[in-house]
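I'll show a record.
***
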Amino acid sequence: EKQNSMHIKHIDPIDRLYQVFSAKLVLEVFGGGGAIWGFSEVMTLRNSETVWFWRPCATVFGCIFFARFILQIMDYITELTKGPINQDKSYKRLYQIFSAKLVLEVFGGGGAIWGSTEALTLRNSETQEFWRKMAIIVALIFIVRWCLQIQDYLRDMRNNSTTTSNDDKNWLRLVQEFSARFVLQVLGGAGAIWGFSEVLTLRNPATVFFWRPCALVIGMIFLYRWVLQIIDFVSEIEGSIGSKESLRLLQVFAAKIVLEVFGGGGAIWGFSEVVTLRNPETVHFWRPCAAVFGAVFFTRYCLQFKDFMDEYKGQGSPSKASWSRLFQIFSAKIVLEVFGAGGAIWGISEALTLRTHETQEFWRNKAIIVAIIFTIRYFFQMKDYTAEIYREFMGVSIEKPKPKGMQWVRLLQIFSAKLVLEVFGGGGAIWGFSEVLTLRRPETVFFWRPVALTIGFIFFIRWMMQIKDFMNECMGGSSYLQKSTWSKLLQMFAAKLVLEVFGGGGAIWGFSEVLTLRNAHTVWFWRPCAAAFGAIFFCRWVLQMKDYMAQIEMERDANEIHKDQTSKVSSFPTKSSMEDGDFSLSSGLEVEDSNADISMTDESTPLFKTEPAYIV
Protein backbone atom coordinates (compact mmCIF):
# COMPACT_ATOMS: atom_id res chain seq x y z
CA GLU A 1 0.00 0.00 0.00
CA LYS A 2 2.94 2.32 0.69
CA GLN A 3 4.26 1.65 -2.80
CA ASN A 4 0.81 2.35 -4.24
CA SER A 5 0.49 5.63 -2.32
CA MET A 6 3.98 6.65 -3.43
CA HIS A 7 2.97 5.84 -7.01
CA ILE A 8 -0.14 8.04 -6.71
CA LYS A 9 1.93 10.91 -5.31
CA HIS A 10 4.15 10.84 -8.38
CA ILE A 11 1.14 11.32 -10.70
CA ASP A 12 0.78 14.89 -11.89
CA PRO A 13 -2.31 16.47 -10.19
CA ILE A 14 -3.67 17.75 -13.49
CA ASP A 15 -3.31 14.30 -15.07
CA ARG A 16 -5.03 12.82 -12.02
CA LEU A 17 -7.87 15.36 -12.35
CA TYR A 18 -8.33 14.42 -16.00
CA GLN A 19 -8.32 10.67 -15.26
CA VAL A 20 -10.81 10.91 -12.40
CA PHE A 21 -13.25 13.42 -13.85
CA SER A 22 -13.34 12.12 -17.41
CA ALA A 23 -14.62 8.86 -15.89
CA LYS A 24 -17.03 10.77 -13.62
CA LEU A 25 -18.43 12.69 -16.58
CA VAL A 26 -19.49 9.44 -18.27
CA LEU A 27 -20.46 7.44 -15.18
CA GLU A 28 -22.20 10.16 -13.15
CA VAL A 29 -23.40 12.91 -15.50
CA PHE A 30 -24.39 10.82 -18.54
CA GLY A 31 -25.04 7.86 -16.23
CA GLY A 32 -27.33 9.89 -13.97
CA GLY A 33 -29.63 10.87 -16.82
CA GLY A 34 -29.30 7.47 -18.49
CA ALA A 35 -30.18 5.69 -15.23
CA ILE A 36 -33.52 7.49 -14.98
CA TRP A 37 -34.21 6.96 -18.66
CA GLY A 38 -33.33 3.27 -18.70
CA PHE A 39 -34.84 2.29 -15.36
CA SER A 40 -38.13 4.00 -16.16
CA GLU A 41 -38.43 1.67 -19.16
CA VAL A 42 -37.36 -1.35 -17.08
CA MET A 43 -40.25 -0.63 -14.70
CA THR A 44 -42.61 -0.14 -17.69
CA LEU A 45 -43.19 3.46 -16.55
CA ARG A 46 -41.88 4.91 -19.80
CA ASN A 47 -43.78 4.21 -22.99
CA SER A 48 -44.89 6.15 -26.05
CA GLU A 49 -47.60 7.96 -24.03
CA THR A 50 -45.32 9.02 -21.14
CA VAL A 51 -42.08 9.73 -22.99
CA TRP A 52 -42.91 13.50 -22.89
CA PHE A 53 -42.49 13.33 -19.09
CA TRP A 54 -39.45 11.05 -18.74
CA ARG A 55 -37.25 12.82 -21.31
CA PRO A 56 -37.17 16.18 -19.44
CA CYS A 57 -36.99 14.26 -16.15
CA ALA A 58 -33.84 12.41 -17.27
CA THR A 59 -32.42 15.65 -18.68
CA VAL A 60 -32.97 17.45 -15.36
CA PHE A 61 -31.17 14.67 -13.48
CA GLY A 62 -28.31 14.91 -15.96
CA CYS A 63 -28.10 18.66 -15.31
CA ILE A 64 -28.16 18.14 -11.52
CA PHE A 65 -25.30 15.65 -11.74
CA PHE A 66 -23.43 18.00 -14.05
CA ALA A 67 -23.65 20.76 -11.42
CA ARG A 68 -22.46 18.24 -8.82
CA PHE A 69 -19.61 17.29 -11.19
CA ILE A 70 -18.49 20.97 -11.42
CA LEU A 71 -18.60 21.32 -7.61
CA GLN A 72 -16.48 18.18 -7.22
CA ILE A 73 -13.88 19.65 -9.59
CA MET A 74 -13.82 22.85 -7.52
CA ASP A 75 -13.37 20.83 -4.31
CA TYR A 76 -10.53 18.87 -5.90
CA ILE A 77 -8.73 22.07 -6.92
CA THR A 78 -9.26 23.51 -3.41
CA GLU A 79 -7.67 20.39 -1.88
CA LEU A 80 -4.66 20.79 -4.15
CA THR A 81 -4.10 24.39 -3.05
CA LYS A 82 -5.21 24.37 0.62
CA GLY A 83 -4.94 20.73 1.66
CA PRO A 84 -7.59 18.08 2.38
CA ILE A 85 -11.09 19.20 3.36
CA ASN A 86 -12.42 17.54 6.53
CA GLN A 87 -16.09 16.63 6.19
CA ASP A 88 -17.57 15.17 9.37
CA LYS A 89 -20.28 12.55 9.05
CA SER A 90 -23.75 14.05 9.44
CA TYR A 91 -27.33 13.55 8.31
CA LYS A 92 -26.88 16.29 5.75
CA ARG A 93 -23.79 14.52 4.39
CA LEU A 94 -25.68 11.22 4.44
CA TYR A 95 -28.46 12.74 2.34
CA GLN A 96 -25.97 14.19 -0.17
CA ILE A 97 -24.11 10.92 -0.58
CA PHE A 98 -26.94 8.40 -0.66
CA SER A 99 -29.39 10.40 -2.76
CA ALA A 100 -26.72 10.35 -5.46
CA LYS A 101 -25.99 6.67 -4.83
CA LEU A 102 -29.69 5.81 -5.18
CA VAL A 103 -29.71 7.19 -8.71
CA LEU A 104 -26.21 6.14 -9.80
CA GLU A 105 -26.01 2.70 -8.22
CA VAL A 106 -29.57 1.40 -7.72
CA PHE A 107 -31.32 2.87 -10.75
CA GLY A 108 -27.97 2.87 -12.57
CA GLY A 109 -27.38 -0.83 -11.86
CA GLY A 110 -30.69 -1.84 -13.43
CA GLY A 111 -30.31 0.73 -16.22
CA ALA A 112 -26.77 -0.52 -16.98
CA ILE A 113 -28.08 -4.04 -17.64
CA TRP A 114 -30.98 -2.69 -19.70
CA GLY A 115 -28.95 -0.28 -21.82
CA SER A 116 -25.82 -2.36 -22.38
CA THR A 117 -27.82 -5.41 -23.48
CA GLU A 118 -29.50 -3.35 -26.18
CA ALA A 119 -26.17 -1.85 -27.24
CA LEU A 120 -24.73 -5.38 -27.47
CA THR A 121 -27.75 -6.50 -29.57
CA LEU A 122 -28.69 -8.99 -26.83
CA ARG A 123 -32.04 -7.36 -26.09
CA ASN A 124 -34.74 -7.45 -28.74
CA SER A 125 -38.49 -7.99 -28.93
CA GLU A 126 -38.09 -11.71 -28.20
CA THR A 127 -35.74 -11.35 -25.20
CA GLN A 128 -37.24 -8.12 -23.84
CA GLU A 129 -38.99 -9.69 -20.82
CA PHE A 130 -36.00 -11.85 -19.89
CA TRP A 131 -33.68 -8.82 -19.68
CA ARG A 132 -36.33 -6.83 -17.83
CA LYS A 133 -36.31 -9.47 -15.08
CA MET A 134 -32.50 -9.51 -15.02
CA ALA A 135 -32.37 -5.70 -14.71
CA ILE A 136 -34.90 -5.73 -11.85
CA ILE A 137 -32.97 -8.47 -10.02
CA VAL A 138 -29.73 -6.49 -10.33
CA ALA A 139 -31.50 -3.36 -9.08
CA LEU A 140 -32.83 -5.27 -6.04
CA ILE A 141 -29.31 -6.52 -5.25
CA PHE A 142 -28.00 -2.96 -5.41
CA ILE A 143 -30.89 -1.75 -3.20
CA VAL A 144 -29.79 -4.24 -0.50
CA ARG A 145 -26.18 -3.08 -0.96
CA TRP A 146 -27.31 0.57 -0.71
CA CYS A 147 -29.19 -0.11 2.54
CA LEU A 148 -26.17 -1.88 4.06
CA GLN A 149 -23.97 1.07 3.12
CA ILE A 150 -26.41 3.44 4.89
CA GLN A 151 -26.34 1.19 7.95
CA ASP A 152 -22.52 1.28 8.04
CA TYR A 153 -22.53 5.07 7.63
CA LEU A 154 -25.01 5.59 10.52
CA ARG A 155 -23.01 3.29 12.79
CA ASP A 156 -19.81 5.18 12.02
CA MET A 157 -21.60 8.50 12.65
CA ARG A 158 -22.81 7.34 16.07
CA ASN A 159 -19.43 5.92 17.06
CA ASN A 160 -17.50 8.79 15.48
CA SER A 161 -15.30 6.28 13.68
CA THR A 162 -14.69 4.82 10.25
CA THR A 163 -15.57 1.26 9.27
CA THR A 164 -12.39 -0.69 8.64
CA SER A 165 -13.66 -4.25 8.38
CA ASN A 166 -14.27 -3.90 4.65
CA ASP A 167 -11.07 -1.98 4.02
CA ASP A 168 -8.88 -5.09 4.35
CA LYS A 169 -7.91 -6.24 0.89
CA ASN A 170 -8.71 -9.92 0.38
CA TRP A 171 -10.19 -12.17 -2.29
CA LEU A 172 -13.76 -11.91 -0.95
CA ARG A 173 -13.44 -8.14 -0.97
CA LEU A 174 -12.16 -8.29 -4.56
CA VAL A 175 -15.22 -10.27 -5.73
CA GLN A 176 -17.65 -7.97 -3.89
CA GLU A 177 -16.09 -4.75 -5.09
CA PHE A 178 -15.30 -5.61 -8.69
CA SER A 179 -18.55 -7.43 -9.43
CA ALA A 180 -20.29 -4.16 -8.50
CA ARG A 181 -17.80 -2.13 -10.50
CA PHE A 182 -18.30 -4.31 -13.56
CA VAL A 183 -22.03 -3.58 -13.56
CA LEU A 184 -21.80 0.10 -12.59
CA GLN A 185 -18.70 1.13 -14.54
CA VAL A 186 -18.17 -1.26 -17.48
CA LEU A 187 -21.80 -2.02 -18.41
CA GLY A 188 -22.82 1.36 -16.94
CA GLY A 189 -20.28 3.22 -19.08
CA ALA A 190 -21.64 1.73 -22.27
CA GLY A 191 -25.25 2.05 -21.06
CA ALA A 192 -24.74 5.69 -20.09
CA ILE A 193 -23.73 6.68 -23.62
CA TRP A 194 -26.45 4.51 -25.15
CA GLY A 195 -29.22 5.82 -22.88
CA PHE A 196 -28.27 9.49 -22.64
CA SER A 197 -27.84 9.77 -26.41
CA GLU A 198 -31.52 8.79 -26.67
CA VAL A 199 -32.51 11.22 -23.90
CA LEU A 200 -30.98 14.06 -25.93
CA THR A 201 -32.74 12.76 -29.08
CA LEU A 202 -29.33 12.16 -30.69
CA ARG A 203 -29.95 8.43 -31.09
CA ASN A 204 -32.74 7.36 -33.40
CA PRO A 205 -33.11 4.63 -36.05
CA ALA A 206 -31.19 6.75 -38.53
CA THR A 207 -28.16 7.31 -36.22
CA VAL A 208 -28.06 4.01 -34.33
CA PHE A 209 -25.20 2.84 -36.61
CA PHE A 210 -23.03 5.58 -35.03
CA TRP A 211 -24.08 5.34 -31.38
CA ARG A 212 -23.78 1.56 -31.06
CA PRO A 213 -20.01 1.41 -31.76
CA CYS A 214 -19.60 4.63 -29.76
CA ALA A 215 -21.23 3.05 -26.68
CA LEU A 216 -19.27 -0.18 -27.12
CA VAL A 217 -15.94 1.65 -27.42
CA ILE A 218 -16.66 3.50 -24.17
CA GLY A 219 -17.55 0.15 -22.59
CA MET A 220 -14.24 -1.34 -23.79
CA ILE A 221 -12.31 1.60 -22.34
CA PHE A 222 -13.98 1.10 -18.97
CA LEU A 223 -13.39 -2.65 -19.21
CA TYR A 224 -9.68 -1.99 -19.70
CA ARG A 225 -9.72 0.42 -16.75
CA TRP A 226 -11.56 -2.22 -14.68
CA VAL A 227 -8.90 -4.83 -15.47
CA LEU A 228 -6.09 -2.43 -14.48
CA GLN A 229 -7.89 -1.72 -11.21
CA ILE A 230 -8.10 -5.48 -10.51
CA ILE A 231 -4.36 -5.86 -11.18
CA ASP A 232 -3.58 -3.02 -8.75
CA PHE A 233 -5.95 -4.45 -6.13
CA VAL A 234 -4.51 -7.99 -6.38
CA SER A 235 -0.93 -6.70 -6.13
CA GLU A 236 -1.85 -5.02 -2.81
CA ILE A 237 -3.37 -8.14 -1.22
CA GLU A 238 -0.95 -9.32 1.46
CA GLY A 239 0.88 -12.47 0.40
CA SER A 240 -0.61 -12.35 -3.08
CA ILE A 241 1.03 -12.09 -6.47
CA GLY A 242 2.64 -8.93 -7.80
CA SER A 243 1.39 -6.72 -10.61
CA LYS A 244 3.58 -8.42 -13.24
CA GLU A 245 2.33 -11.84 -12.21
CA SER A 246 -1.25 -10.50 -12.21
CA LEU A 247 -0.76 -9.28 -15.77
CA ARG A 248 0.63 -12.66 -16.78
CA LEU A 249 -2.33 -14.41 -15.14
CA LEU A 250 -4.69 -12.11 -17.04
CA GLN A 251 -2.96 -12.86 -20.37
CA VAL A 252 -3.08 -16.62 -19.86
CA PHE A 253 -6.65 -16.93 -18.60
CA ALA A 254 -8.14 -14.34 -20.96
CA ALA A 255 -6.89 -16.53 -23.82
CA LYS A 256 -8.10 -19.69 -22.06
CA ILE A 257 -11.66 -18.45 -21.60
CA VAL A 258 -11.95 -17.82 -25.35
CA LEU A 259 -10.09 -20.90 -26.58
CA GLU A 260 -11.26 -23.45 -24.02
CA VAL A 261 -14.58 -22.30 -22.52
CA PHE A 262 -16.17 -20.67 -25.56
CA GLY A 263 -14.12 -22.97 -27.80
CA GLY A 264 -15.30 -26.10 -25.98
CA GLY A 265 -18.96 -25.29 -26.55
CA GLY A 266 -18.27 -23.93 -30.05
CA ALA A 267 -16.35 -27.10 -31.01
CA ILE A 268 -19.36 -29.32 -30.27
CA TRP A 269 -21.71 -26.90 -32.01
CA GLY A 270 -19.58 -26.46 -35.13
CA PHE A 271 -18.39 -30.06 -35.55
CA SER A 272 -21.91 -31.47 -35.11
CA GLU A 273 -22.88 -29.41 -38.19
CA VAL A 274 -19.73 -30.43 -40.08
CA VAL A 275 -20.59 -34.12 -39.78
CA THR A 276 -24.26 -33.35 -40.64
CA LEU A 277 -25.54 -34.38 -37.19
CA ARG A 278 -26.96 -30.93 -36.47
CA ASN A 279 -29.84 -29.72 -38.61
CA PRO A 280 -33.12 -27.86 -37.96
CA GLU A 281 -34.70 -31.06 -36.58
CA THR A 282 -31.88 -31.83 -34.09
CA VAL A 283 -30.86 -28.32 -33.07
CA HIS A 284 -32.93 -28.63 -29.87
CA PHE A 285 -30.54 -31.42 -28.76
CA TRP A 286 -27.20 -29.93 -29.81
CA ARG A 287 -27.75 -26.48 -28.30
CA PRO A 288 -28.02 -27.70 -24.66
CA CYS A 289 -25.30 -30.27 -25.40
CA ALA A 290 -22.87 -27.52 -26.52
CA ALA A 291 -23.93 -25.33 -23.57
CA VAL A 292 -23.22 -28.20 -21.13
CA PHE A 293 -19.74 -28.67 -22.62
CA GLY A 294 -19.15 -24.93 -22.24
CA ALA A 295 -20.19 -25.19 -18.56
CA VAL A 296 -17.89 -28.20 -18.00
CA PHE A 297 -14.94 -26.37 -19.52
CA PHE A 298 -15.76 -23.30 -17.45
CA THR A 299 -15.55 -25.44 -14.29
CA ARG A 300 -12.21 -26.79 -15.56
CA TYR A 301 -11.10 -23.20 -16.22
CA CYS A 302 -11.90 -22.21 -12.61
CA LEU A 303 -9.96 -25.21 -11.27
CA GLN A 304 -6.98 -24.30 -13.46
CA PHE A 305 -7.10 -20.78 -12.04
CA LYS A 306 -7.04 -22.24 -8.51
CA ASP A 307 -4.10 -24.52 -9.40
CA PHE A 308 -2.23 -21.53 -10.84
CA MET A 309 -2.61 -19.61 -7.58
CA ASP A 310 -1.68 -22.66 -5.45
CA GLU A 311 1.49 -23.28 -7.45
CA TYR A 312 2.47 -19.62 -7.16
CA LYS A 313 2.09 -19.79 -3.36
CA GLY A 314 4.08 -23.03 -3.22
CA GLN A 315 1.07 -25.05 -2.10
CA GLY A 316 0.84 -27.16 -5.24
CA SER A 317 3.17 -29.04 -7.53
CA PRO A 318 3.11 -29.94 -11.22
CA SER A 319 1.18 -33.14 -11.83
CA LYS A 320 3.22 -36.17 -12.85
CA ALA A 321 2.32 -38.35 -15.79
CA SER A 322 -0.26 -40.96 -14.79
CA TRP A 323 -3.21 -42.84 -16.24
CA SER A 324 -5.76 -40.61 -14.48
CA ARG A 325 -3.86 -37.57 -15.76
CA LEU A 326 -3.93 -39.08 -19.27
CA PHE A 327 -7.73 -39.32 -19.13
CA GLN A 328 -8.08 -35.73 -17.87
CA ILE A 329 -5.81 -34.31 -20.55
CA PHE A 330 -6.94 -36.28 -23.58
CA SER A 331 -10.67 -36.15 -22.86
CA ALA A 332 -10.29 -32.35 -23.05
CA LYS A 333 -7.98 -32.55 -26.08
CA ILE A 334 -10.43 -34.58 -28.17
CA VAL A 335 -13.02 -31.81 -27.75
CA LEU A 336 -10.70 -28.80 -27.98
CA GLU A 337 -8.28 -30.03 -30.65
CA VAL A 338 -10.00 -32.71 -32.76
CA PHE A 339 -13.59 -31.43 -32.75
CA GLY A 340 -12.26 -27.90 -32.25
CA ALA A 341 -10.00 -28.04 -35.31
CA GLY A 342 -12.84 -29.05 -37.61
CA GLY A 343 -15.17 -26.56 -35.93
CA ALA A 344 -12.55 -23.80 -36.25
CA ILE A 345 -12.37 -24.19 -40.04
CA TRP A 346 -16.15 -24.40 -40.26
CA GLY A 347 -16.81 -21.36 -38.06
CA ILE A 348 -14.09 -19.00 -39.30
CA SER A 349 -14.95 -19.72 -42.95
CA GLU A 350 -18.49 -18.49 -42.26
CA ALA A 351 -17.27 -15.51 -40.23
CA LEU A 352 -15.02 -14.52 -43.16
CA THR A 353 -18.02 -14.90 -45.53
CA LEU A 354 -16.10 -17.64 -47.39
CA ARG A 355 -18.70 -20.30 -46.61
CA THR A 356 -22.01 -19.77 -48.34
CA HIS A 357 -24.74 -22.03 -49.66
CA GLU A 358 -22.72 -22.61 -52.86
CA THR A 359 -19.44 -23.42 -51.06
CA GLN A 360 -20.95 -25.35 -48.14
CA GLU A 361 -19.77 -28.79 -49.26
CA PHE A 362 -16.29 -27.54 -50.16
CA TRP A 363 -15.72 -26.25 -46.63
CA ARG A 364 -17.32 -29.34 -45.09
CA ASN A 365 -14.70 -31.50 -46.82
CA LYS A 366 -11.89 -29.20 -45.69
CA ALA A 367 -13.12 -29.20 -42.09
CA ILE A 368 -13.33 -33.02 -42.07
CA ILE A 369 -9.80 -33.31 -43.54
CA VAL A 370 -8.42 -30.98 -40.87
CA ALA A 371 -10.24 -32.96 -38.15
CA ILE A 372 -8.72 -36.21 -39.48
CA ILE A 373 -5.23 -34.66 -39.43
CA PHE A 374 -5.73 -33.53 -35.83
CA THR A 375 -7.10 -36.98 -34.92
CA ILE A 376 -3.83 -38.55 -36.14
CA ARG A 377 -1.91 -35.89 -34.17
CA TYR A 378 -4.05 -36.70 -31.13
CA PHE A 379 -3.09 -40.40 -31.23
CA PHE A 380 0.60 -39.54 -31.64
CA GLN A 381 0.38 -37.27 -28.59
CA MET A 382 -1.31 -40.07 -26.63
CA LYS A 383 1.46 -42.46 -27.71
CA ASP A 384 4.15 -40.03 -26.50
CA TYR A 385 2.36 -39.49 -23.19
CA THR A 386 1.98 -43.25 -22.63
CA ALA A 387 5.71 -43.67 -23.28
CA GLU A 388 6.38 -40.94 -20.70
CA ILE A 389 4.26 -42.80 -18.11
CA TYR A 390 6.28 -45.96 -18.80
CA ARG A 391 9.63 -44.13 -18.45
CA GLU A 392 8.56 -42.56 -15.15
CA PHE A 393 7.40 -45.94 -13.88
CA MET A 394 10.69 -47.60 -14.88
CA GLY A 395 12.78 -44.65 -13.67
CA VAL A 396 14.29 -44.12 -17.11
CA SER A 397 15.04 -40.65 -18.42
CA ILE A 398 16.06 -40.40 -22.07
CA GLU A 399 16.59 -37.06 -23.76
CA LYS A 400 17.88 -37.42 -27.28
CA PRO A 401 19.63 -34.36 -28.68
CA LYS A 402 17.68 -33.07 -31.64
CA PRO A 403 19.47 -32.14 -34.88
CA LYS A 404 19.59 -28.45 -35.63
CA GLY A 405 17.38 -28.80 -38.69
CA MET A 406 14.64 -30.36 -36.55
CA GLN A 407 14.04 -26.97 -34.90
CA TRP A 408 12.40 -25.76 -38.09
CA VAL A 409 10.31 -28.92 -38.34
CA ARG A 410 9.29 -28.45 -34.71
CA LEU A 411 8.35 -24.81 -35.38
CA LEU A 412 6.21 -25.87 -38.33
CA GLN A 413 4.49 -28.62 -36.33
CA ILE A 414 3.68 -26.40 -33.36
CA PHE A 415 2.57 -23.24 -35.11
CA SER A 416 0.61 -24.83 -37.95
CA ALA A 417 -1.51 -26.46 -35.22
CA LYS A 418 -1.69 -23.20 -33.26
CA LEU A 419 -2.83 -21.33 -36.38
CA VAL A 420 -5.84 -23.63 -36.68
CA LEU A 421 -6.63 -24.09 -32.98
CA GLU A 422 -5.93 -20.59 -31.65
CA VAL A 423 -6.22 -18.10 -34.54
CA PHE A 424 -9.04 -19.72 -36.53
CA GLY A 425 -10.34 -21.30 -33.32
CA GLY A 426 -10.42 -17.97 -31.46
CA GLY A 427 -12.60 -16.33 -34.09
CA GLY A 428 -14.63 -19.51 -34.61
CA ALA A 429 -15.22 -19.88 -30.85
CA ILE A 430 -16.90 -16.48 -30.63
CA TRP A 431 -18.83 -17.10 -33.85
CA GLY A 432 -20.07 -20.54 -32.80
CA PHE A 433 -20.71 -19.96 -29.10
CA SER A 434 -22.66 -16.77 -29.80
CA GLU A 435 -25.04 -18.95 -31.83
CA VAL A 436 -25.16 -21.60 -29.08
CA LEU A 437 -26.36 -18.94 -26.63
CA THR A 438 -28.87 -17.66 -29.23
CA LEU A 439 -27.06 -14.31 -29.26
CA ARG A 440 -26.26 -14.51 -32.97
CA ARG A 441 -29.26 -14.33 -35.24
CA PRO A 442 -29.87 -12.84 -38.69
CA GLU A 443 -30.60 -9.44 -37.05
CA THR A 444 -27.37 -9.43 -34.99
CA VAL A 445 -24.93 -11.03 -37.43
CA PHE A 446 -23.67 -7.54 -38.38
CA PHE A 447 -22.40 -7.19 -34.79
CA TRP A 448 -20.97 -10.67 -34.16
CA ARG A 449 -19.03 -10.93 -37.44
CA PRO A 450 -16.63 -8.03 -36.66
CA VAL A 451 -16.41 -9.20 -33.03
CA ALA A 452 -15.34 -12.71 -34.12
CA LEU A 453 -12.90 -11.34 -36.70
CA THR A 454 -11.42 -8.91 -34.16
CA ILE A 455 -10.83 -11.76 -31.70
CA GLY A 456 -9.27 -13.81 -34.51
CA PHE A 457 -6.98 -10.91 -35.41
CA ILE A 458 -5.91 -10.48 -31.76
CA PHE A 459 -5.02 -14.17 -31.60
CA PHE A 460 -3.15 -13.84 -34.91
CA ILE A 461 -0.95 -11.09 -33.41
CA ARG A 462 -0.44 -13.33 -30.35
CA TRP A 463 0.48 -16.21 -32.67
CA MET A 464 3.11 -14.08 -34.43
CA MET A 465 4.60 -13.01 -31.10
CA GLN A 466 4.74 -16.66 -29.97
CA ILE A 467 6.69 -17.53 -33.14
CA LYS A 468 9.15 -14.74 -32.35
CA ASP A 469 9.54 -15.98 -28.76
CA PHE A 470 10.01 -19.58 -29.94
CA MET A 471 12.78 -18.58 -32.33
CA ASN A 472 14.50 -16.46 -29.69
CA GLU A 473 14.35 -19.19 -27.03
CA CYS A 474 15.01 -22.30 -29.12
CA MET A 475 17.32 -21.00 -31.83
CA GLY A 476 20.06 -19.08 -30.12
CA GLY A 477 18.83 -17.34 -26.99
CA SER A 478 17.18 -13.99 -26.44
CA SER A 479 19.69 -12.22 -28.72
CA TYR A 480 18.97 -14.49 -31.72
CA LEU A 481 17.55 -11.60 -33.72
CA GLN A 482 17.73 -7.93 -32.82
CA LYS A 483 14.62 -5.75 -32.75
CA SER A 484 15.63 -3.95 -35.96
CA THR A 485 16.08 -7.32 -37.70
CA TRP A 486 12.56 -8.40 -36.73
CA SER A 487 11.20 -5.14 -38.10
CA LYS A 488 13.07 -5.65 -41.38
CA LEU A 489 11.93 -9.29 -41.53
CA LEU A 490 8.28 -8.28 -41.04
CA GLN A 491 8.46 -5.53 -43.66
CA MET A 492 10.17 -7.75 -46.24
CA PHE A 493 8.11 -10.90 -45.88
CA ALA A 494 4.77 -9.18 -45.35
CA ALA A 495 5.29 -7.57 -48.76
CA LYS A 496 6.45 -10.87 -50.25
CA LEU A 497 3.38 -12.65 -48.89
CA VAL A 498 1.08 -10.25 -50.74
CA LEU A 499 3.12 -9.82 -53.92
CA GLU A 500 4.39 -13.35 -54.45
CA VAL A 501 2.02 -15.75 -52.66
CA PHE A 502 -1.32 -14.02 -53.21
CA GLY A 503 0.05 -12.52 -56.43
CA GLY A 504 1.16 -15.92 -57.75
CA GLY A 505 -2.31 -17.39 -57.41
CA GLY A 506 -3.99 -14.15 -58.52
CA ALA A 507 -1.76 -13.92 -61.59
CA ILE A 508 -2.95 -17.29 -62.90
CA TRP A 509 -6.57 -16.48 -62.03
CA GLY A 510 -6.51 -13.01 -63.57
CA PHE A 511 -4.41 -13.72 -66.68
CA SER A 512 -6.50 -16.78 -67.56
CA GLU A 513 -9.48 -14.43 -67.75
CA VAL A 514 -7.51 -11.85 -69.75
CA LEU A 515 -6.72 -14.49 -72.36
CA THR A 516 -10.39 -15.60 -72.38
CA LEU A 517 -9.28 -19.04 -71.15
CA ARG A 518 -11.36 -18.82 -67.98
CA ASN A 519 -15.12 -18.74 -68.34
CA ALA A 520 -18.15 -20.32 -66.69
CA HIS A 521 -17.36 -23.69 -68.32
CA THR A 522 -13.65 -23.84 -67.38
CA VAL A 523 -13.69 -22.24 -63.95
CA TRP A 524 -13.60 -25.71 -62.33
CA PHE A 525 -10.11 -26.17 -63.81
CA TRP A 526 -8.60 -22.72 -63.23
CA ARG A 527 -9.64 -22.39 -59.55
CA PRO A 528 -7.57 -25.38 -58.30
CA CYS A 529 -4.83 -24.41 -60.77
CA ALA A 530 -4.54 -20.90 -59.24
CA ALA A 531 -4.79 -22.35 -55.71
CA ALA A 532 -1.97 -24.82 -56.51
CA PHE A 533 0.28 -21.99 -57.73
CA GLY A 534 -0.51 -20.05 -54.56
CA ALA A 535 0.47 -23.08 -52.46
CA ILE A 536 3.74 -23.50 -54.39
CA PHE A 537 4.66 -19.85 -53.89
CA PHE A 538 3.74 -20.14 -50.21
CA CYS A 539 6.21 -23.03 -49.80
CA ARG A 540 8.81 -20.92 -51.62
CA TRP A 541 8.02 -18.00 -49.24
CA VAL A 542 8.58 -20.21 -46.19
CA LEU A 543 11.90 -21.50 -47.57
CA GLN A 544 13.02 -17.94 -48.30
CA MET A 545 12.28 -16.95 -44.72
CA LYS A 546 14.27 -19.96 -43.49
CA ASP A 547 17.23 -19.03 -45.71
CA TYR A 548 17.07 -15.45 -44.47
CA MET A 549 17.24 -16.62 -40.84
CA ALA A 550 20.15 -18.95 -41.58
CA GLN A 551 22.14 -16.21 -43.29
CA ILE A 552 21.56 -13.78 -40.41
CA GLU A 553 22.78 -16.45 -37.99
CA MET A 554 25.95 -17.02 -40.05
CA GLU A 555 26.64 -13.29 -40.10
CA ARG A 556 26.15 -13.10 -36.35
CA ASP A 557 28.65 -15.96 -35.80
CA ALA A 558 31.10 -14.29 -38.13
CA ASN A 559 30.81 -11.06 -36.15
CA GLU A 560 31.46 -12.97 -32.91
CA ILE A 561 34.59 -14.56 -34.42
CA HIS A 562 35.70 -11.11 -35.52
CA LYS A 563 35.24 -9.76 -31.98
CA ASP A 564 37.16 -12.71 -30.47
CA GLN A 565 40.05 -12.21 -32.87
CA THR A 566 40.08 -8.48 -32.12
CA SER A 567 40.16 -9.07 -28.38
CA LYS A 568 43.04 -11.57 -28.75
CA VAL A 569 45.11 -9.17 -30.81
CA SER A 570 44.39 -6.22 -28.52
CA SER A 571 45.28 -8.26 -25.42
CA PHE A 572 48.85 -8.94 -26.72
CA PRO A 573 50.09 -5.58 -28.03
CA THR A 574 53.48 -5.52 -29.78
CA LYS A 575 55.90 -2.69 -30.06
CA SER A 576 55.21 -2.18 -33.75
CA SER A 577 51.48 -2.23 -33.21
CA MET A 578 51.73 0.40 -30.50
CA GLU A 579 53.92 2.68 -32.55
CA ASP A 580 52.36 2.21 -35.98
CA GLY A 581 49.22 4.36 -36.28
CA ASP A 582 48.19 2.62 -39.54
CA PHE A 583 47.91 -0.85 -38.01
CA SER A 584 45.00 -2.75 -39.58
CA LEU A 585 43.15 -5.93 -38.70
CA SER A 586 41.82 -6.32 -42.22
CA SER A 587 43.99 -9.24 -43.28
CA GLY A 588 41.37 -11.86 -43.98
CA LEU A 589 39.16 -11.11 -40.99
CA GLU A 590 36.62 -8.81 -42.65
CA VAL A 591 32.98 -9.87 -42.82
CA GLU A 592 30.28 -8.53 -45.05
CA ASP A 593 28.14 -5.68 -43.81
CA SER A 594 25.06 -7.07 -42.04
CA ASN A 595 22.99 -4.42 -43.79
CA ALA A 596 24.10 -5.54 -47.27
CA ASP A 597 21.45 -6.81 -49.68
CA ILE A 598 20.60 -10.49 -49.29
CA SER A 599 19.51 -12.43 -52.34
CA MET A 600 16.30 -14.31 -51.72
CA THR A 601 16.48 -16.26 -54.99
CA ASP A 602 20.14 -17.31 -54.95
CA GLU A 603 20.18 -21.11 -54.79
CA SER A 604 23.66 -21.04 -53.22
CA THR A 605 22.27 -19.49 -50.04
CA PRO A 606 23.23 -21.97 -47.30
CA LEU A 607 20.30 -23.61 -45.53
CA PHE A 608 22.13 -24.34 -42.29
CA LYS A 609 25.12 -22.94 -40.49
CA THR A 610 28.35 -24.83 -41.22
CA GLU A 611 29.84 -26.19 -37.99
CA PRO A 612 33.25 -27.80 -37.44
CA ALA A 613 31.56 -30.99 -36.19
CA TYR A 614 30.23 -31.65 -39.69
CA ILE A 615 33.56 -31.18 -41.46
CA VAL A 616 35.29 -34.50 -42.14
User: Anything to note?
Assistant: The first helix runs from residue 2 to 9. The chain has a mean pLDDT of 79. The radius of gyration is 31 Å. Residues 554 and 609 are 6 Å apart (CA to CA).
